[in-house]
Amino acid sequence: MLSLEWNEGNEISLTVREALASSGYLGKEGFLFEFSTDIPPTFVLMLSNPTATEIASVKTGGFRFYLADIDDLIWLSAVSENGEMEMDGPFSPGLYPEQKWPVKVLKQLLGKTLDSEFIFTMVLIDSKSSYIKAVREFKMNRHFERALSALYYEKIRQSFDSEANDATILKITSFLSPSQIATCATAECYIAARRQ
Q: What's the rounded Cα separation, in Å, for the pair 23 and 87?
């Protein structure tokens, strides 16, 4: 397993990033989440053990992101540095079109640089079999909402067709601290912790 250490100033080792890029490491032991703009720095984080819920914490642009895979859904939360909740929900602008959580947060991150390019690499993992179902890499500028919807909306909408998934999402209402996140190894633990 590869691991990354954050340096002062939120920088990461270029050698680690280059190693990840050259090896194309996206195997059975984890998945790669990459977020980059022309606003430095670029963050790359490797997560391990796809049989469990995966959660990452990435600090950039005054926000702290938590990414989790729950029941085949990509779940994204963003919280400002002062702890104020900015966005918490499925990574899909089509699911709750009146709120468009990801769009709101990403536009805040972009600020005046709306022509910046975002690069995302995400993986959908089947929660029952633990097999990787889909890998998506997409580059988005100010039109990222349309690109995201085209790639993910149908997949995520289908995931919400079951009552079980709807119930799960409705029960996830509170915010986890990094220490709580670190103790959660499974989706059940993650959901239970968020109920508290």
A: 34
Range of the domain at 46: 14-164
Would you state the pLDDT for residue 129? 41
Q: Is 111 left (phi over 0), alpha (psi -120 to 50) or beta?
A: left
Question: Residue 120's closest CA among 144, 134, 138, 147?
Answer: 138
Give the residue among 78, 112, 110, 96 at the shortest CA–CA distance from 160.
96
With bands split at pLDDT 50, 70 and 90, how would you rate the model's confidence at 6? very low
State how far the Cα of 167 lies from the Cα of 191, in Å rounded to an integer: 11
Instruction: Look at the pTM and tell me if it is higher than 0.85.
Output: no
Q: Tell me how many domains the chain contains.
A: 1
Q: What are phi and psi of 5, to 5 degrees?
A: -115, 135
Residue 179 maps to a domain: no
